[in-house]
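Friendly challenge for the regulars: who can give me the structure tokens for this chain first? No prize, just bragging rights.
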Amino acid sequence: MEDANLLFSVVLASVFNPFTFEGLFTPFNIFKNYGYMIAENQSVFFMQRLYPKFEYFFFELVVLLYIGCLSFILYKKKVREDLPLIITSLVFTLLALKYVRAFPLFVVGAMPVFMSAFSSIKNKVLVYISFGTVFLLSLLPNSYFSPFQRGFGMGLGKDSEGSAEFFLKNGLKGRVFNNYDIGSYLVYSLYPQEKVFVDNRPEAYPEDFFRQIYVPMQENEEKWRELNSMYGFNVIFFYRRDYTPWAQPFLIKRLADPEWAPVYVDDFALILVRNGAPNEDLIEKYRLPPEMFVVTK
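First reply, four minutes later:
Bragging rights claimed.
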């Protein structure tokens, strides 16, 4: 009876939000209106085929270690005492296999299973070998945890704030066209002076926005000219490492477009401004030479 009352209280309390039942069920419906494929919402196997990275192999290796530890717990018949941990870890593991963004949940859920299994192993040499192997693999060059990779350490990476500082220091104005990947960075850096074209909340935009506006205007020159004329963009602020099929071709076209002049570039961002007033002085001072940009295959 107490459990039923507690459950009813939780449901009742959950309904008391500004959007009532709609807000209560948002976590279950949030993926329905996506018109844009988000890397974090893909499975590890899909991402491994699309962008082979050591991190995905490393995750799969740790999952195999988790399966080994779970099998050992079942073999030792410790299921009853570890049942809550086992259920939680299984749910988080399945989520992590389905959605890359759930990797941290897998770590939280799997750690107690690791500890329970390793604490029951009498031969600690096996424990040391397991942890030692995982640790050494994490130090391989180009892996996410490696101290040998560029940018390893605490705090913001080099050039991470440079593009926004350039924008603000030079008083750039007018409507900004930006790509999805850099949207939230611009919201943080430029609001309330400037509004962004899109940010990293795909659930906040209608599906038609991505399918009929955002993607087509980068794929099709006629669509770009139409929407550029409609919105009157003065600045293109683009995350350079956007590897969607349309992003790099779009950048190549804009760099060759006499209507636009590149004035800033770093490891992450590229800024172009519209040729002509009010950008003449800025272009004269900061225009980047064409030979800086090379198309590679």
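The two ends are 67 Å apart (CA to CA). The mean pLDDT is 85. Your move, everyone else.
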